[in-house]
Write a structure and sequence with these properties.
Elements lengths: L3 H4 L3 H20 L21 E5 L2 E5 L6 E3 L2 H9 L4 E4 L21 E2 L8 H6 L4 E5 H4 L3 H5 L4 E4 L6 H12 L2 H25 L5 E6 L4 E4 L4 H9 L14 E4 L11 E6 L4 H9 L1 H4 L2 H4 L3 E3 L2 H4 L5 H15 L6
Parallel strand pairs: 3-4, 3-6, 4-5, 6-7, 8-11, 11-12
Antiparallel strand pairs: 1-2, 8-9, 9-10
Helix pairs in contact: 3-7, 7-8, 8-9, 8-14
Length: 331
């Protein structure tokens, strides 16, 4: 979300930047007298179903042709566009202390320009990429929506974590990849059910907790979160105090460590949370937890379990679960 200083950025400066960048874009597109079809111009077959009007969190947007040059201004939306095999010319790779796109995206982002950081995306760089669609989230860039629409057709989802699967379905519609979106989600959900069933068969009646150490309050993540949704899709049970379908997390102090207990505890540490983690793990109350006494505390990667919020991240979580419980990864 934008800082106060960014929200007060003089409108004339932003307008001047956009005007210059857009002028460059129009000139580049209109230069020369060659009437031959461009290599980037979509064929009639690939353009089927367009133009279309998409209803999104900020209103309605007409998308005249199947997008071929997408810019995504949230890391989870970056991964969603990639999962749908649509060319991503620009995206957010920098947020908090992360520099660059996650390594697990590999060659898929070799030609993607990082237009971050997430709290102040570079509007001039976005315009210079000549996108035909920009995607973001209201929770991230509500104050930039009107300026982004001056660059290219723009669609916004409301948020990311709790509706990450719905966002993939939505982007399938915006990108003309409805079948791909449905197929990818079905493949993930089928795999999650298989691995979850194998874990439940091996550990009947057991419960699973998610604890995240940050540079602020320590949190227990509930079913409405990204990783919580994955556990639910696997059919894994949560402790009785962690089943609220509306709340995002429970913030706990060291005195409330007991609320984190389960048969298995998955622990992640976000950058800056290392000191708090050490204090919790050294606390006698932590050592009394059922999962700790049974050796069932599992350290997992925060960038995958918490911040990826994507199909790619979900598959990596399933990899971790299959490896941890020694069951078939169902690939």
């Amino acid at each position: 979300m934008n800082t106060l200083a960014q929200r007060r950025r003089p409108g004339r400066i932003v307008a001047a930047v956009l005007t210059a960048a857009l002028a460059f874009s129009v000139t580049a597109c209109g230069s020369g007298g060659d009437s031959k079809p461009s290599a980037d111009k979509p064929s009639a077959a690939s353009d089927a179903g367009f133009p279309r009007t998409v209803t999104h969190d900020k209103g309605k947007t007409e998308i005249k042709a199947k997008p071929k040059r997408v810019v995504a201004l949230d890391n989870s939306l970056v991964e969603a566009v990639i999962a749908l095999d649509v060319p991503l010319v620009g995206g957010i790779g920098s947020y908090r202390d992360q520099k660059g796109f996650p390594p697990y995206l590999g060659a898929a982002v070799e030609k993607t320009k990082d237009v971050g950081p997430i709290d102040s995306p570079n509007l001039e760089a976005i315009a210079a990429l000549k996108p035909d669609l920009i995607v973001s989230a209201t929770v991230r860039h509500e104050d930039l929506y009107e300026q982004l629409t001056q660059i290219a057709p723009t669609v916004f989802v409301a948020t990311t974590g709790p509706i990450w699967k719905e966002n993939i379905t939505f982007l399938g519609k915006a990108l003309g990849e409805e079948k791909k979106a449905a197929a990818e989600l079905t493949a993930y959900e089928t795999r999650a059910k298989k691995i979850g069933a194998a874990i439940n068969a091996k550990n009947p009646g057991q419960t699973y907790s998610l604890v995240r150490f940050l540079d602020g309050p320590t949190r227990i993540y509930l079913p409405k979160t990204f990783s919580g949704i994955i556990l639910a899709d696997m059919g894994l049970a949560r402790p009785a105090n962690q089943q609220d379908p509306e709340e995002f997390n429970i913030e706990i102090s060291e005195e409330q460590i007991g609320q984190a207990d389960a048969d298995h505890i998955f622990v992640t540490t976000f950058s800056g949370g290392e000191e708090r983690r050490e204090k919790f793990l050294a606390n006698p109350l932590w050592k009394r937890l059922n999962a700790v006494q049974k050796g069932n505390v599992h350290e997992v990667e925060d960038a995958v379990w918490m911040t990826s919020v994507s199909l790619q991240g979900a598959d990596l979580v399933l990899d971790d679960m299959a490896k941890t419980f020694k069951v078939d990864p169902a690939k």
